[in-house]
Design brief:
single chain
Length: 671
């Protein structure tokens, strides 16, 4: 079979699995297995279709008239699309394996419908990244948003419905901006095919308008600041395997869209576009990790880290756009390589962390880290996989997070001593913000792992926790192994991803030197030698083991002979550091960035009015929602109330509107 045929069969399996899941409404366990196994087969077929295209770099196309005469059905399976299909299929395969046991807890609560919406969600993502026509792209984008919305509200409680409503509004606001951007390009080209958009020669002003519309439209889906409000609420509300897909791959559709519009369709012709992307990425990365530190809800904390990592990816994309605009192909390629490598890495380690969090919740039945503790002894496989995920997201060598962040650093260093004054200033600022992000991320995951898995149990449920079923542990261990492979095997993986980057930046004078470092043909640099990689890999288990062996006896003696200054009761529980205490100094230092949370109330009365209610006095929320998002909601609400007078119920008034509209149209035509 050709790659396109395999891709078609992949989408068919997703669709059939979802539809069959609906048919087994009364046999939910069977529906779970049908949906999960179909998704696994679809994921494997997706991998088989994408890897040959990714390795060869060829572009496969399919064109047909389609059911609508104004829009051709165009499929373009190029390197970027193959890369996205590979990332989606990889995480789908593992998450589907995980779901076979995890979703059993949803029996009696609509598990059959969950299988349908999850498979529809996956199918729409896969089809979207290969679609090369604006009309079908928007339809698939809306399918993806609606299917994921049903997953967000799966629990049908107040929190999930509130989160779903906010997600619904922001996602569709972004869709409107994307539609306007595509409409402007259609008006200039006369066709909805992306290939016609690529041939356009837009004026600088029009190109900038299209770019900004696409950037903010897709940025809302990516969850970048300040369009992030839905993400920390929607991702925790969804089931954990759906959260892994939403955080691991769905937000990357936003990144894909920014690359598609800014680089592929518009060619990144203006340097300030890249500076804007870089700035939003830098702010998102720092504030995302800072807000994550203040969270006690493990899934909400991981969702904030998605905002952080989206910022890191955007920094690489911004550097690439700056390099393309200034005719610096090496800089553009390294920046884009860092972005797409981190896109892949984030999908793997964030998927692993969400699945690990789901495993903990599966046994402890709470998302509050203060009620966990001591789980490493009771859930050793989950703890091991989760630890690897924590190390990977903290960018510790030689795991995958380190490699992609290194490329991002390298691109920023290159930008700091080349090009215009703005480039030389922006580079060092971004480097400092990326360094702060890395330090805070390491601190945050020391807190997460220490509070959740170390020490003593902090609740009755944590005391009786045990390892999760084998399908769940197998899924987590597979992703943990991939984290190691993507880091240690960077020498072999980076050249493949570099070809994807070069296909977009149109660079030709770049080679791959030893250590997977992209350099011009005339230069000679190296990243990390294979020998150093091996040493770092061996150090991962050996150093913690040495520390454990040295201090093991002393810890036991202290436990037996220590003074009973904790009254002799529950010393591990009472004297251990809490999640709140761990980050209290940081929250005090950056108090201006935090304030009490106000939340949009998505009640049934929202059709008449939007009310903002204060709740959760002990919860912490960044000021973006209070200062930007909610004031906009209130302004729109006031405007809508004043416009209600236009609909007075008087038929004569409506006739007047029709006449006035006709007069305006005649004047426009005459002019």
């Amino acid at each position: 079979m050709t790659p396109l045929q395999l891709l078609l069969w992949s989408v068919i399996f997703y669709a059939v699995g979802g539809v069959v899941s609906l048919l087994f409404k009364r046999q939910e366990k069977l529906a779970i297995y049908v949906a999960g196994i179909a998704a696994m087969i679809g994921g494997v077929l997706g991998l088989c279709s994408s890897i040959p295209v990714l390795m060869s770099g060829e572009v496969l196309t399919y064109l047909s008239q389609g059911p609508f005469p104004f829009a051709n059905f165009v499929v373009r399976f190029d390197s970027l699309a193959a890369f996205m299909v590979m990332v989606i299929s990889l995480l789908v395969t593992v998450s589907a394996l995980y779901s076979l046991n995890y979703v059993q807890e949803y029996c009696g609560r609509g598990a059959w419908s969950m299988g349908f919406f999850l498979n529809l969600f996956i199918a729409s993502m896969v089809a979207l990244v290969v679609m090369d026509n604006a009309f079908y792209f928007i339809i698939l984008f809306e399918m993806m948003s609606l299917a994921s919305w049903f997953l967000v509200i799966a629990d049908q409680d107040d929190k999930s419905i509130r989160a779903g409503l906010l997600y619904f509004f922001i996602a569709h606001a972004g869709s409107i901006l994307i539609m306007i951007a595509f409409f402007l390009m259609w008006r200039e080209s006369g066709s909805l095919d992306f290939d016609s958009f690529r041939q356009l020669s837009l004026s600088p002003a029009m190109a900038s308008i299209v770019f900004l519309l696409g950037f903010f439209g897709f940025g809302a889906k990516a969850g970048m600041l300040p369009l992030h409000s839905w993400l920390p609420q929607a991702h925790p509300a969804a089931p954990s395997h759906a959260s892994a897909l939403m955080s691991g791959v769905m937000v990357k559709i936003g990144i894909f869209g920014i690359i598609k519009v800014g680089i592929d369709l518009l060619g990144a012709t203006q340097g300030w576009w890249g500076i804007v992307v870089l700035a939003f990425g830098a702010v998102s990365s720092v504030l995302g990790v800072m807000y994550a530190l203040a969270e006690h809800d493990i899934k909400r904390l991981l969702a904030w880290h998605t905002v952080e990592n989206i910022g890191i990816i955007l920094m690489g994309v911004g550097v690439a756009m700056v390099g393309m605009a200034n005719n610096m192909p090496v800089l553009a390629t390294i920046g884009l390589l860092g972005a797409i490598y981190h896109l892949l890495n984030h999908a793997v380690f964030k998927g692993l962390l969400f699945l690990g969090a789901g495993a903990v919740i599966y046994r402890v039945h709470t998302r509050d880290m203060e009620k966990m503790g001591g789980l490493a002894k009771l859930m050793p496989l989950t703890a091991t996989a989760f630890l690897i995920g924590c190390m990977a997201i903290s960018a510790l060598p030689p795991l995958n997070g380190f490699v992609s962040e290194w490329y991002t650093y390298q691109s920023l260093f290159s930008m700091s001593h080349e090009g215009t004054f703005i480039m030389r200033i922006s580079g060092p600022i971004a480097i400092v913000m990326l360094a702060i992000t890395g330090a805070l991320a390491a601190m945050c995951f020391v807190k997460v792992y220490g509070v959740s898995f170390c020490g003593g149990a902090r609740s009755e449920q944590a005391t009786h926790a045990r390892e999760v079923p084998w399908t769940m542990t197998a899924a987590m261990l597979i992703l943990a192994a991939i984290c190691v492979i993507l880091g240690v095997g960077a020498t072999y993986i980076a050249p493949v991803l570099a070809n994807v980057a070069m296909s977009l930046t149109h660079a030709t004078d770049i080679t791959v030197a030893q250590g997977a470092m992209l350099v011009p043909n005339s230069a000679s640099q190296a990243m990390i030698s294979p020998a150093m990689t091996l040493i770092l890999l061996l150090a991962l288990p050996i150093i913690p083991l040495i520390i454990y062996m040295v201090f093991k006896g002393k810890q036991l003696d202290a436990r037996r002979k220590g003074d009973a200054w904790a009254c002799g009761y529950a010393w591990e529980k009472e004297m251990s550091v809490s999640a709140g205490g761990f980050t209290q100094p940081l929250r005090s230092m950056f108090a201006p960035l935090y304030r009490l949370r106000t939340q949009l109330d998505p009640s049934a009365r929202l059709a008449q009015t939007l009310e903002v209610t204060k709740e959760g006095a002990g919860k912490v929320e960044p000021f973006w929602d209070e200062k930007i998002i909610y004031p906009l909601v209130r302004v729109i609400n006031r405007i809508a109330k004043r416009m209600q007078c236009l609909q007075g119920g008087d038929f004569r008034l409506y006739c007047l509107y029709v006449v006035a509209a006709l007069i305006v149209l005649l004047v426009v035509i005459a002019a």
